[in-house]
Amino acid sequence: MSEDQHVQPIGGHIQRQHQELQKLVRAIGHLFSHQPEGTSLGNFANEARHALAELRHHLAEHFTQEEDGGYLEEAVARVPRLGTCVAMLEKQHPELLAEIDRVIACAAVQPATAEQRQQIGADFARFARNLLRHEDIENRMLQEGFNDDLGMECDNPLAKDGT
Ligand SMILES: [Fe+2]
Ligand SMILES: [Fe+2]
Prior knowledge:
The chain is an all-alpha fold. It contains 5 helices and no strands.
């Protein structure tokens, strides 16, 4: 088996997980932006807590697989200038988990006022942006390290988007 044949399945697996996580994140975002009033509120709160717990579980597993799977290290071995990206990404894993834990802790408080629920939704939206940016950098690293030379700059990996 060539080196590429070994690495590509790892990258494909990670990218599939990114798509699944993105679906969960978008579903929760939709939930928060369509909050019901009155008697349906209890159901909404339960659904939100359940979905957040599910996302937290998958996220922790995903990060562990990324850290133990070796694809980040493999990308750096192939393209050494990606090393600063990997250090940044690995540092962000516990930060992202802490961020979703804060959202979960707030969502656990009962009963939440409309203002509190709005705040939780805003906090989740910020977490979602940070997570999607993190995953976007990883997807680019997979491309850069294993497929194409995108000229990715690690001190400002999203510079090509102007973001
Ligand atoms: Fe990651
Ligand atoms: Fe990831």
